[in-house]
Specification:
The complex is a heterodimer of chains A (about 110) and B (about 325).
Chain A lengths: L3 H27 L4 E2 H10 L6 H13 L3 E8 L2 E8 L1 H24 L1
Antiparallel strand pairs in A: 1-3, 2-3
Chain B lengths: L2 H11 L3 H26 L5 H11 L2 H7 L12 H30 L5 H29 L1 H8 L5 H4 L6 H18 L17 E3 L7 H21 L4 H23 L4 E3 L5 H42 L1
Helix pairs in contact in B: 1-2, 1-4, 2-3, 5-6, 5-9, 9-10, 10-11, 11-12
The chains are: A alpha+beta (about 110), B mainly alpha (about 325).
Chain lengths: ~110, ~325
């Protein structure tokens, strides 16, 4: 039988799996407004979703490569920064993911 | 060089040269964004310890470099079980075949290897087997073919196959005998010293056998590939049973053709008519025994077919 350390470990892994899926939805939703890396992380944290740097920044890059985000290098506060925003394709994906999320949530509400 | 640039330089070492500048610029942007926010929060300059804390949150340069690149596998999790199974099967087969060839070589030619030579050959063969299997799976992993295999899979393939589990010992025996035959038939393995050096006669195969060079290579080659495939799958199915029957019937035809054609051997020393007759009869006996084995294989395959029919009728 699994001891407490095992259970904590398993719980942590499952929690991070749940968060990983939800995080894409959260990032796409937040990027309906333009953000650069840190401002996005802060905006998500302000809404209760703390994300580590090592998770968020590569994710933004991946979504941009997939064409779901557009990006632009711009100078702000004497430094060039890369700003991200939802692309048209990203908006379509976000709409679909939102619907899926709501359906999943409704199902889960009946289960848990 | 300050600590930030030193960190970025370390990350760059783990990035492909073609994308290094682009990715390092991006990581720098992310890092500076975090540091700026900290300056704002503190309302002043950052200490080296502050910078180290931020870098620590980003993680080891190798991990950061890995995160900014697409995940690539040598052999991915989807293919890994098939890779492990194939490697094990090919490894066992190669070692058993090699041992059989070594033992036969020792018996018929007296060629023997010392323990260190044996160990050396074993290690060499193992490395080859592992390298070849890895290369094949690497090619599959990178070709995208594996996805088509999985997507095209049809549960119908389960309908009969699982009901006819193979006898591994039979299949492995077939593989060894076919492997040794193919090596001998194609002059990779020589039994030239079968006769003692001071023998008064010298035996060789007559030109009749030349006609059967490619047919025998084809039939035994198909049988070898078939038995290897069946060994990997672990079951007989309709298609493999049918191939088994066809291959064995073809072999039987060749055995019969050899039996009625003669002479089968050329004996160099004259006069030796009486000896030729004795040897001829011996070879005919051997061919008859071989024919018996082939017939037994045909019987097993037919029995397998009947098994399938009976099980289908029961459903």
């Amino acid at each position: 039988m699994a001891d407490k350390a095992d259970i904590d470990d398993i719980t942590e892994k499952l929690r991070s799996e749940i968060r990983r899926g939800a995080l894409v939805l959260a990032v796409l939703a937040q990027l309906r407004q333009e953000h650069y890396g840190y401002s996005l992380r802060k905006a998500l944290a302000d809404k209760g979703l703390e994300v580590e740097e090592g998770t968020l920044y590569p994710l933004i890059r991946r979504l941009e490569k997939q064409g779901l985000l557009t990006s632009e290098w711009r100078e702000e506060a004497r430094r060039r920064k890369r700003f991200y925003q939802l692309s048209d394709a990203g908006a379509q994906v976000l709409r679909q993911l939102q619907e899926d999320w709501l359906e999943l949530d409704a199902s889960l509400q009946q289960l848990v | 060089m300050d600590i930030i640039e030193s960190y970025l330089s370390e990350i760059g070492r783990f990035l492909p040269e073609s994308r290094r500048d682009e990715l390092v610029t991006e990581v720098r942007d992310d890092l500076l964004g975090e540091l700026e926010a900290l300056v704002e929060e503190r309302g002043g300059e950052l200490t080296e310890q502050d910078q180290r804390d931020v870098i620590g949150r980003f993680g080891h340069p190798f991990k950061v470099a890995a995160r900014y690149q697409p995940t690539k596998y040598l052999i991915g999790p989807e293919l890994y079980p098939a890779f492990r199974q194939t490697l094990r099967t090919v490894f066992v087969l190669a070692i058993v075949l090699w041992m059989a060839v070594t033992v036969i070589g020792y018996i018929v030619s007296g060629d023997s290897l010392g323990p260190f030579q044996l160990l050396g050959r074993f290690i060499e063969l193992s490395i080859w087997v592992v390298a070849v299997v890895i290369l094949v799976f690497l090619a599959i992993e990178n070709s995208g073919e594996k996805l088509r295999w999985y997507e095209d899979w049809d549960p119908k393939s389960l309908s009969t196959g699982v009901l006819n589990v193979i006898r591994r010992s039979d299949v492995i025996t077939n593989l060894i005998s076919e492997g040794v035959f193919l090596l001998w038939w194609n002059d990779v393995l020589s039994f030239s010293r079968w006769m003692p050096e001071d023998a008064v006669i010298e035996l060789s195969l007559s030109p009749v056998w030349d006609t059967f060079f490619w047919p025998l290579n084809l039939a035994i080659g198909v049988a070898f590939v078939l038995h290897f495939y069946v060994l990997v799958r672990g079951v007989w199915q309709r298609a493999t049973l049918l191939t088994e029957v066809v291959t064995n019937v073809a072999l039987l035809g060749m055995v019969f053709a050899l039996l009625v054609n003669g002479p089968l051997l050329v004996i160099e020393v004259m006069p030796a008519e009486h000896l030729q007759q004795v040897v001829q009869n011996t070879v005919r006996m051997i061919l008859l025994v071989l024919g018996g084995f082939v017939l037994w294989d045909v019987w097993l395959a037919v029995r397998g077919f009947r098994g399938i029919q009976l099980l289908k009728a029961k459903r």
